[in-house]
Amino acid sequence: MASVHESLYFNPMLTNGVVHANVFGVRDWVTPHKMALLVLLSELGRAGAQLGLLERRRLNRLLLPLLQGPDMALSRLRKAIEECCPHLAGSVHIRLKLMAEGELKDMEQFFDDLSDSFSGTEPEVHKTSVVGLFLRHMILAYNKLSFSQVYKLYTALQQYFQKDEKKDGADENEMELTNPEELDGKMEKEELDGPLREEEIACSGPLSQKQAEYFLSQQASLLKNDETKALAPASLQKELNNLLKFNPDFAEAHYLSYLNSLRVQDVFSSTHSLLHYFDRLILTGAESKSNGDEGYGRSLRYAALNLAALHCRFGHYQQAELALQEAIRIAQESNDHVCLQHCLSWLYILEQKIFDSCVLLEHSVNKSLHFGLPYLASLGIQSLVQQRAFAGKAANKLMDALKDSDLLHWKHSLSELIDISIAQKTAIWRLYGRSTMALQQAQTLLSMNSLEAVNVGVQQNNTESFAVVLCHLAELHAEQGYFAAASEILKHLKERFPPNSQHAQLWMLFDQKIQFERAMNDGRYHVADSLVAGITALNSIEGVYRKAIVLKAQNQMSEAHKLLQKLLIHCQKIKNTEMVIRVLLSIAELYWRSSCHTIALPVLLQALALAREYSLQYLASETVLNLAFSQLILGIPEQALNILHMAIEPVLAHGAVLDKGCAMFLVAKCQVASAASYTPQKKIEALESAILNLNEAKTYFAKVDCKEQLRDVLYFQARLFHTLGKTQERNKCAMLFRQLHQELPAHGVPLINAFK
């Protein structure tokens, strides 16, 4: 957000007993709260060496937020001072009482004495210090007041003090009726160092220009770094409307209103505020002051560029393209290469919605490096890496490209892009099925400290990158059966990114997906079906896929097949290769369940070819496991065992617990089927090895509470123990099987039902 212009001043007015100095050379006016601060500074100078080092340090840390922040009630100011130095708080209160209950000449004498702070060879306050500038502003503002304004200021001071006295009397009466221990809490330090609370802003009256600058910069910083600490959208808009009522040409207030409207996805208000922001830049002449005659044109082309970005964000691609063409035309007329590079980046984003072409992006990266725009160049590299990851490029080449962009980040201290790069690495490793590497990258980002300076009490790095990484982390824990840990991560996400924040949809989708998987594992298909609507609202493709999975589990094969065929055509059209492979695997499973085993083979081979072409190693391993299951059904278990050894290692190393259990269960099935042609001794060894694998599979299924698979394993184990003549173990498995069979709906338990 641009800096506040020197030519902006608020209209002089009198509201709520606050006198506004009608002085265009002074950007502050005297208020009762600021007089209380002046008394505090005066008493601080008088105390001198009587104050201890710790007390002085606390008071110095307290002064800056008090000088910059809005006016506050005297009771809260006294509490703040008491936290640092109780003796000084009493002195300030007595001094204010004498002034408020005295005569007008006492206030006059007080301001006359303030000038003495700068006198002498070693003055108490330096003129150029923060405190010195504040004192000089207040003295100048007071000296410019007319007699009637001085009298109104004195009356306002009396009201300010009397209001505090009345509140103290009410508090004493309340204490008589309340347990004193309940009122013993101290005001936390973050109340002053942290962001402004809604009630403070609402009760503080009109803000001076400096207070408005502080308020706007603080809220803008909070919206970027920690949206939860910023004012609620409605409250922030109310305060911005209040600021704009006093000064409609305050451009920065319009821009913050634009950012606030984006939080709630308000298209009309955000467009309205953005246009007003650039209109005010031109009207106030701020751009022309800093950029000469080019200022007006600069505002116009960047206004068109920002409007294009806004339309693109809301999915209005046709309007975005028209605005972008306007920005390109004005930038070309002005020979503005920097603006043209930003336009080229957005042009790639718009073209990407129509067709995949990296020519524009490569050209943008080269030009950005040529014109010294590292931020834009790095974003281009990140987009190239993302596009090539979806195109199936090798992971080592992508990581080399990200390493080059990381050099740019660290060289120019681009902390936001460092976070984006690590989050992108996490997503790429997840795409390629390397969960261990994804977990390592996620932990790297979470353990990093932000390079950006933020206020005390503000959560660092509350950005989209952290939301993405935490969502991946929650899903990784859920896949390994650590549902309690996943719930804790999601709980943290809900606190860090509330439902009304702009990145909340990320954790909402992952939360729904994790709940869906748990319901499916537990056999509660009606619960899973109820979650489909929520997933569809957040991601239509995922929602349709999950609906087909539920229909398949409920044995509604024809409906599931129709849905999967439609989804397959759509995903092939938009080139979502990962989902295409998952849909093909689900279609193959439908063919198995319909006893069309030979028809499933071409589908699986198509999925395997796609997985290998696009370097999706984990999906390729999962497809090989499905092929092994097909070979088992077709009566060639020896061949199935051979290809299992090729695919099972990536699954055990990086797979979800459920997939590990299914893989070990499949190995046991193949071992039993192969043992039919063995010698008696070798057959016994094969069956005992199968039992061990079934024990491992049972452990995996128990970890994710997958009762249907547990029931199948127990049934299979009981049959094997019976074959080996181990009656006691057989009876134990049979008893556990019966317990689960009574809990679950009876669909029949065939010896070989499905891979999953």
Sum up the structure in keywords.
36 helices; phosphoprotein; cytoplasm; cell division; mainly alpha; two-stranded antiparallel ribbon; disordered N terminus; 756 residues; nucleus
Tally of separate helices: 36
Uncertain residue segments: 1-26, 174-204, 286-293, 453-459, 748-753
The largest pleated sheet is described as:
2 strands, antiparallel
Strand content: under 5%
Distance between the termini: 54 Å
Instruction: List the strand order in the largest sheet.
Output: 1-2
Structural class: mainly alpha
Helix content: over 70%
Question: What does this molecule look like?
Answer:
Helices cover 74% and strands 1% of the residues. It is mainly alpha-helical and 756 residues long. Residues 1-26, 174-204, 286-293, 453-459 and 748-753 have low confidence and may be disordered. Helix 15 packs parallel to helix 17 (337-352), helix 16 packs antiparallel against helix 17 and helix 31 runs parallel beside helix 33 (657-674). The protein is built from 36 helices and two strands. It is elongated and about 115 Å long. The two termini are 54 Å apart. Among the domains are: 32-165, no CATH class; 656-755, no CATH class. 42% of the residues are buried. It has a two-stranded antiparallel sheet.
